[in-house]
Amino acid sequence: MSTAPQLPFNARVEPDPDTKNRLINNMNERFSKPRPEVHVSDLVYCPCQSVFRKLFPKPNSERELSYFSAGRGHHDLLEGLHGAEREVKREFEGIQAHYDLLERVIPTEIKTTRSFKRGIKSHWIRQLAYYCAIEKTATGKLIILYLFSQRATKKNPNPSPDMIETYNIEFPDIEAVRRDFLERRDAFVKALDAKNPALAPNVRSDPEDSWLCRNCQYRTECDALEAPTQ
Questions:
Q1: Do 141 and 103 form a contact (C-beta atoms < 8 A)?
Q2: Domain 61-185 architecture
Protein backbone atom coordinates (compact mmCIF):
# COMPACT_ATOMS: atom_id res chain seq x y z
CA MET A 1 0.00 0.00 0.00
CA SER A 2 1.37 3.40 -1.00
CA THR A 3 1.57 6.15 1.60
CA ALA A 4 1.21 9.88 1.16
CA PRO A 5 4.52 11.78 0.95
CA GLN A 6 5.71 13.45 4.13
CA LEU A 7 5.40 17.18 3.44
CA PRO A 8 7.80 19.64 5.11
CA PHE A 9 4.96 21.88 6.34
CA ASN A 10 1.34 21.61 7.35
CA ALA A 11 0.17 21.95 3.73
CA ARG A 12 -3.28 21.07 2.44
CA VAL A 13 -3.03 19.82 -1.16
CA GLU A 14 -6.16 19.75 -3.28
CA PRO A 15 -6.77 19.18 -7.01
CA ASP A 16 -7.29 22.31 -9.11
CA PRO A 17 -9.55 21.20 -11.99
CA ASP A 18 -10.29 24.77 -13.14
CA THR A 19 -6.64 25.45 -13.99
CA LYS A 20 -6.26 22.08 -15.68
CA ASN A 21 -9.39 22.60 -17.77
CA ARG A 22 -8.22 26.06 -18.80
CA LEU A 23 -4.86 24.65 -19.89
CA ILE A 24 -6.48 21.77 -21.79
CA ASN A 25 -8.90 24.14 -23.53
CA ASN A 26 -6.09 26.51 -24.51
CA MET A 27 -3.91 23.63 -25.73
CA ASN A 28 -6.81 22.31 -27.81
CA GLU A 29 -7.30 25.77 -29.26
CA ARG A 30 -3.67 25.78 -30.36
CA PHE A 31 -3.09 22.18 -31.40
CA SER A 32 -6.51 20.77 -32.34
CA LYS A 33 -7.81 23.45 -34.67
CA PRO A 34 -8.27 21.89 -38.15
CA ARG A 35 -5.98 23.27 -40.84
CA PRO A 36 -7.85 23.95 -44.10
CA GLU A 37 -4.70 23.60 -46.20
CA VAL A 38 -2.97 20.32 -46.98
CA HIS A 39 0.50 20.16 -45.40
CA VAL A 40 3.49 17.95 -46.09
CA SER A 41 2.92 16.29 -42.71
CA ASP A 42 -0.53 15.17 -43.94
CA LEU A 43 1.22 13.13 -46.63
CA VAL A 44 4.03 11.74 -44.50
CA TYR A 45 2.68 9.95 -41.43
CA CYS A 46 -0.71 8.33 -42.06
CA PRO A 47 -2.58 10.11 -44.86
CA CYS A 48 -5.71 8.11 -44.03
CA GLN A 49 -5.70 9.54 -40.50
CA SER A 50 -5.13 13.04 -41.86
CA VAL A 51 -8.16 12.72 -44.14
CA PHE A 52 -10.25 11.58 -41.16
CA ARG A 53 -9.06 14.62 -39.19
CA LYS A 54 -10.05 17.04 -41.93
CA LEU A 55 -13.45 15.44 -42.55
CA PHE A 56 -14.35 14.59 -38.96
CA PRO A 57 -12.22 16.74 -36.61
CA LYS A 58 -11.93 15.75 -32.97
CA PRO A 59 -10.15 17.47 -30.07
CA ASN A 60 -6.85 15.85 -29.20
CA SER A 61 -6.63 13.65 -26.12
CA GLU A 62 -4.82 14.87 -23.01
CA ARG A 63 -2.02 12.42 -23.86
CA GLU A 64 -1.58 13.87 -27.36
CA LEU A 65 -1.70 17.43 -26.08
CA SER A 66 1.06 16.72 -23.56
CA TYR A 67 3.22 15.23 -26.34
CA PHE A 68 2.62 18.21 -28.64
CA SER A 69 3.43 20.72 -25.91
CA ALA A 70 6.65 18.97 -24.87
CA GLY A 71 7.72 18.51 -28.49
CA ARG A 72 7.08 22.17 -29.30
CA GLY A 73 9.24 23.25 -26.37
CA HIS A 74 12.14 21.02 -27.43
CA HIS A 75 11.87 22.23 -31.03
CA ASP A 76 11.91 25.89 -29.99
CA LEU A 77 15.03 25.36 -27.88
CA LEU A 78 16.99 23.50 -30.58
CA GLU A 79 15.92 25.91 -33.31
CA GLY A 80 17.14 28.82 -31.22
CA LEU A 81 20.49 27.18 -30.48
CA HIS A 82 21.16 26.15 -34.10
CA GLY A 83 21.40 29.63 -35.62
CA ALA A 84 19.81 28.98 -39.05
CA GLU A 85 16.60 30.57 -40.34
CA ARG A 86 13.67 29.25 -38.30
CA GLU A 87 10.12 28.17 -39.13
CA VAL A 88 10.41 28.62 -42.89
CA LYS A 89 7.17 28.28 -44.88
CA ARG A 90 6.84 27.24 -48.50
CA GLU A 91 4.03 26.34 -50.91
CA PHE A 92 4.64 23.70 -53.58
CA GLU A 93 2.18 22.08 -55.97
CA GLY A 94 -0.72 23.14 -53.75
CA ILE A 95 0.86 21.73 -50.56
CA GLN A 96 2.09 23.75 -47.58
CA ALA A 97 5.55 23.02 -46.17
CA HIS A 98 6.94 24.19 -42.86
CA TYR A 99 10.66 23.60 -42.30
CA ASP A 100 12.07 23.68 -38.79
CA LEU A 101 15.28 25.27 -40.10
CA LEU A 102 16.74 26.42 -43.41
CA GLU A 103 20.50 26.82 -43.70
CA ARG A 104 21.05 28.61 -47.00
CA VAL A 105 19.15 26.17 -49.27
CA ILE A 106 19.46 23.12 -46.99
CA PRO A 107 16.34 22.22 -45.01
CA THR A 108 16.88 20.81 -41.52
CA GLU A 109 14.25 18.71 -39.74
CA ILE A 110 14.22 18.28 -35.95
CA LYS A 111 12.68 15.16 -34.45
CA THR A 112 12.11 14.33 -30.80
CA THR A 113 11.30 10.79 -29.79
CA ARG A 114 10.36 8.98 -26.59
CA SER A 115 11.58 5.67 -27.99
CA PHE A 116 14.44 3.85 -26.30
CA LYS A 117 15.47 2.53 -29.72
CA ARG A 118 18.04 4.39 -31.78
CA GLY A 119 17.77 4.80 -35.52
CA ILE A 120 16.19 6.87 -38.27
CA LYS A 121 12.52 6.31 -39.06
CA SER A 122 11.39 6.04 -42.66
CA HIS A 123 8.73 8.76 -42.35
CA TRP A 124 11.39 11.19 -41.13
CA ILE A 125 13.33 10.50 -44.32
CA ARG A 126 10.21 10.96 -46.47
CA GLN A 127 9.43 14.32 -44.86
CA LEU A 128 12.98 15.61 -45.26
CA ALA A 129 13.10 14.29 -48.84
CA TYR A 130 9.93 16.19 -49.70
CA TYR A 131 11.41 19.38 -48.26
CA CYS A 132 14.53 18.86 -50.36
CA ALA A 133 12.39 18.37 -53.48
CA ILE A 134 10.59 21.62 -52.71
CA GLU A 135 13.90 23.48 -52.25
CA LYS A 136 15.35 21.77 -55.37
CA THR A 137 18.34 20.51 -53.41
CA ALA A 138 19.69 16.99 -52.96
CA THR A 139 20.92 17.58 -49.40
CA GLY A 140 19.07 17.83 -46.12
CA LYS A 141 19.94 17.64 -42.44
CA LEU A 142 18.28 15.67 -39.64
CA ILE A 143 18.56 16.33 -35.90
CA ILE A 144 17.19 13.67 -33.52
CA LEU A 145 16.67 14.41 -29.82
CA TYR A 146 16.07 11.32 -27.67
CA LEU A 147 14.10 12.06 -24.52
CA PHE A 148 15.08 8.84 -22.74
CA SER A 149 18.47 7.20 -22.39
CA GLN A 150 18.87 3.74 -23.85
CA ARG A 151 18.73 0.85 -21.40
CA ALA A 152 21.07 -2.10 -21.30
CA THR A 153 19.32 -5.36 -22.20
CA LYS A 154 20.36 -8.90 -23.02
CA LYS A 155 19.98 -8.13 -26.72
CA ASN A 156 21.74 -4.79 -26.35
CA PRO A 157 24.25 -4.99 -23.47
CA ASN A 158 26.09 -1.86 -24.65
CA PRO A 159 23.48 0.89 -25.03
CA SER A 160 24.28 4.04 -26.92
CA PRO A 161 25.14 7.02 -24.71
CA ASP A 162 23.98 9.43 -27.42
CA MET A 163 20.94 11.60 -26.67
CA ILE A 164 21.34 13.79 -29.77
CA GLU A 165 22.17 12.52 -33.26
CA THR A 166 22.79 14.69 -36.32
CA TYR A 167 22.94 13.59 -39.95
CA ASN A 168 23.63 14.91 -43.43
CA ILE A 169 21.32 13.07 -45.84
CA GLU A 170 21.72 12.96 -49.63
CA PHE A 171 18.96 12.22 -52.15
CA PRO A 172 20.72 11.45 -55.47
CA ASP A 173 17.43 11.05 -57.40
CA ILE A 174 15.43 14.06 -56.30
CA GLU A 175 13.10 13.63 -59.27
CA ALA A 176 11.99 10.25 -57.88
CA VAL A 177 11.23 12.02 -54.60
CA ARG A 178 9.15 14.58 -56.46
CA ARG A 179 7.16 11.84 -58.22
CA ASP A 180 6.47 10.12 -54.90
CA PHE A 181 5.35 13.44 -53.43
CA LEU A 182 2.90 14.05 -56.28
CA GLU A 183 1.51 10.51 -56.11
CA ARG A 184 0.76 10.80 -52.39
CA ARG A 185 -0.64 14.30 -52.87
CA ASP A 186 -2.99 13.10 -55.61
CA ALA A 187 -4.18 10.12 -53.51
CA PHE A 188 -4.76 12.38 -50.52
CA VAL A 189 -6.70 15.00 -52.49
CA LYS A 190 -8.77 12.29 -54.18
CA ALA A 191 -9.71 10.82 -50.78
CA LEU A 192 -10.53 14.26 -49.42
CA ASP A 193 -12.68 15.24 -52.41
CA ALA A 194 -14.52 11.91 -52.29
CA LYS A 195 -14.90 12.20 -48.49
CA ASN A 196 -13.53 8.66 -48.33
CA PRO A 197 -10.43 8.14 -46.11
CA ALA A 198 -10.08 4.58 -47.44
CA LEU A 199 -8.70 6.04 -50.70
CA ALA A 200 -5.66 7.47 -48.88
CA PRO A 201 -2.57 5.43 -47.93
CA ASN A 202 -2.52 4.08 -44.36
CA VAL A 203 0.08 2.48 -42.07
CA ARG A 204 -1.94 -0.49 -40.80
CA SER A 205 0.37 -3.06 -42.36
CA ASP A 206 3.57 -1.03 -42.15
CA PRO A 207 5.97 -2.87 -39.77
CA GLU A 208 7.63 0.39 -38.70
CA ASP A 209 4.72 2.82 -38.45
CA SER A 210 1.72 0.65 -37.55
CA TRP A 211 2.25 1.68 -33.90
CA LEU A 212 0.48 4.91 -34.87
CA CYS A 213 -2.75 2.89 -34.99
CA ARG A 214 -2.63 1.95 -31.30
CA ASN A 215 -3.73 5.33 -29.96
CA CYS A 216 -5.33 6.72 -33.11
CA GLN A 217 -8.57 8.58 -32.42
CA TYR A 218 -10.03 7.14 -35.62
CA ARG A 219 -9.10 3.51 -35.09
CA THR A 220 -12.72 2.38 -34.77
CA GLU A 221 -13.70 4.19 -37.96
CA CYS A 222 -10.61 2.88 -39.77
CA ASP A 223 -11.34 -0.69 -38.62
CA ALA A 224 -14.81 -0.31 -40.10
CA LEU A 225 -13.25 0.64 -43.44
CA GLU A 226 -11.19 -2.55 -43.37
CA ALA A 227 -14.00 -4.84 -42.21
CA PRO A 228 -15.31 -7.21 -44.90
CA THR A 229 -18.84 -6.53 -46.09
CA GLN A 230 -21.47 -9.15 -45.23
A1: yes
A2: Alpha-Beta Complex (3.90)
Query: 98-127, pLDDT tens digit by residue?
Result: 999 999 899 999 998 888 888 899 999 999
Amino acid at 154: K
Alpha-carbon distance 194 to 57, whole Å?
Answer: 17
pTM recorded for the entire structure: 0.83
**Which pLDDT tens digit goes with each residue over 158-179?**
888 888 999 999 999 999 999 9
Structural domain spans, the chain = 61-185
The list of the chain residues with pLDDT below 70 reads 1-5, 31-32, 226-230
